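Handout, section 4.2: multi-component inputs.
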Amino acid sequence: MSQNAFFFDESRCIDCRACAVACRDWNGVEQPDCKLLRVFSWEEGVFPELMMRTVFVPCYHCEKPACGEACSNGAIIKEGRFGAVLIDSERCTGCGDCKAACPYSVPQMVDDASGPRAMKCTMCYERLAAGEMPVCVNSCVARALDFGPLDIMQQKYGDRREAEGLPSAELTRPAVIFKPAEPKKTVVRYDIDKARALFGVHKDWTSPSDEASRGVEGADRSIIGRTGIDLKAEKDEMLRATRNDEW
Amino acid sequence: MKNVGKRGAPIWERITWDEALDTVASKIEEIVKEYGPYSIYSYYPIDFSVYCGYGFVPWGMYSFSGHQLADNLVVGIDDYGALAGKETELTGTEPPDLLNSKLIIGIGWNPAVTRPEFVNVLLAAKEQGTPIVVIDSRYTQTAQSLADQWIPIKPGTDAALLIAIANVLFKEDLIDHGFVERFVEPNGLASWKAYVTGETDGIDKTPEWAESICAVPAETILDLARLYGAHHGYSDGNPCYFKVHWPAARIVGGENTGRAGIYLQALTGNIGVPGGYFGGGEFLVEPYIPPVMVDFGKAIPEYAPPTLLNVRTWVDSVLLRDQLEQGVMPEAEYRRRLGIPQDSPLPNIRMVFNQSGTELGTNDNQKQWAAYKKLDFVVTRAYHMDRTDVQYSDIVLPTADPFFEDCNDVFGIGGFTFPALSGVGTYGNYFILGQKIIEPPGEAKPLVWINAQLAKRLGVIEKSHPRLTDVLDDAKAWDERFFELQKEAYEAWRRQYAGWASMTGAQPETAPPFDEFYACPIFRVPLKREPFFAFKGQIEGSRPFNTASGKIEFHSSFLCDPDMPDKELVLPQSQTRTGFCYGGANPTLVTPQAEYVEQRDSQFGELAGEYPFRLITPHSFYRQHTSQDNNAWVGSEARHALWMNEYDARQLDIKDGDLVKVSTEQADGVLPAYVTERITPGCVCMIYGAWYHPGAKASERMPDGIDFRGAANNFTPSGHYPWIVGIQHCQNQARVEKMIGGDLS
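Output:
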């Protein structure tokens, strides 16, 4: 059995979501809260010492797919040609057991004219059969995505099978290789504490105590837009977790 | 569609195409007859108007803003003139030239969003070890993925940082003397050095001086200046790409930022060398392939539209008209305020024919809607009914998006340069056929069809669209005709290309026949090994800069001329008339050299008490100007919200997602907050390009309703005056409050 895999290079990703829009387009998904490909981005650190994190979550077409084991209708198969995990919509009843079992919460539950069912990334099976790449990979302007046989991906990119915020790869052996974002460098000296003090001055509420509160200790992480990844979020919460703020 | 309600509160009634076209044609005739040939405004002149003897051209249609003045005066270039084919100086740098750079510094520069063609080049530059520093008031994806280091700065203070860098370069003698002696006009240089080091005004513009203004620590400025000063492109072949990008200059006083950026690149010998960059406009590069032009058989124009006013002042021309007519405002003053050249007639705008959005290049949009209400007639062609200018129109012509129709004058799209209509711009190294992909939705019609129908009603179609006359009423024949015209254009171009290739050595030597091209409609030639960069001719050859001295000028004699507000800028060496009449006050308040000047609407000015936040309005990842604002696919991937720092949000008891009221002197709005550490404290960000959604509640500033979408151009000022005409303002001072319950006061 052959196994294909995705490669995601976070250090190149510019969080543009071209992959997600291409996925929606190719698969003709109308429902805004049904995402066969979710991109999560969040921030780490306190001004001005920051990192933006991004992770690409299609289906990782695991070597040991938990969704398939959880499906009591036998609707989920792992096909042999590309190693894609696919849902047989004839058999799927939309019970949601697969979504509950998937550590990445990949299956998207929809209930429309065609009835309740689970939908998920197909690895762009038809495109692969026609000799093309998955549409998300082709759409990536920053060339942060790659796709191919797992062993080739491992040779090219190493064997890091998990990314920060994602569950352990030991659970399902996801067919994905990650390259994390790189830490920032110091090209020129930059005194963080001094910078915070320089920015702490604000005309409306300038006072020594305000300036003193400006720092890691004073920051309230709970009021910030996105500070982590929430794979289990659904509906509006899922949209909130997978939208950026660049519109 | 016909508006039977009011402008701004439309009630739409469906009418036939015939009724709509008849009405528009008769309004054109009526208004021109009554008010003369300069009474109809259109952002781009309508193609048939030159056969009807009316119309005018605005100047300043490109929006490099403060950079425009800087480019004109310091290095003597006019990008728009080059785009239109009347100037020959090409000012672009091809992205691969960044691989020749040894250091890359960007200010207000977010190529991940606004210059996607740079993304892979920057990633490659980073991988080959070139240090990349980005200075910006937001931690953008450019700062994250493309840069090695991010240095936050208070928005609008970039000129102070640049001047302090120059201070270090002068004091520590980090100047590329070989370059400066040959290419910089010495008196202006001495004058600016005296300003920077405090000889003129007693203020030594040191890193410590700048630190208190821009919030970049002094030792960081010192390090940056030393690193930069060790990169001399001309004398040492160790070039730096230093990009002071357009937004940094899109503020009141932005001409200072734009000019200081060019001065620095001159001081370090990084202009006109591989891996360098001069700092300003950036599109036009040497053509790889000649453009393919469709021959519509148009007659020679019988009328040459005069250049009347700046593209951003048509609104003021309408609103100030009463004062002119009542004698309250002298004509000379009216001209200066609008940037009307002295030998041009005065406009008397009574009608707007909106071919593309008019809010595109304007600020303080509420003023624009007030002007719309004063007009006799407004017609808009549009793809979307909820676009703002549609809401202020009398008739809307549903127009097919270019994706639904074959491209007209320009054959296709391509390259990373603008496809100029004539002249030198062309396509970069490839073009793609502009093909009809799907049928237009509903009864929408192509722009060319609409114009041809109007031309027919105005009796000029035989001159304006002779090769389309017989297919106007037959959609199938129309499509077939376009295909024939494109095929003919390609074949004519193909013959031209063979000659071009043998002359320039371009590969391939011949282009494929049409049928072969049509099967895969992309034509591409390889990129040149040595990428194009601007001013090579001046630095390696003997061509003078197009300034009075023939050198790079730090001090402008044009701005010192007391008559400058009434004068059109003429480029000294080529004697090219730019059409730019910068106007402004008399004498102008723009200093003859770049200085850091605290403005009324700065964080330190008089507005900051009532409006303490600095509002920035950068471009979106997803909207091309205002298009895509109603794209649901984008809506599921992105949110339009007001960015604010966690510190500021905490003080105001605001958490992410809360609705906030945001106000400037010009507008009031309500939108959700995006609370983040990614924006500097004291700064808020409303990404540009949303369509104004007026709510039920009005305010004094917004009689049609306060904005519930966050349309950034409502919130920015239009106060060119008394400075100078034509500078776009994309920042402002703002007040932000938490919305409590239904309180919309």
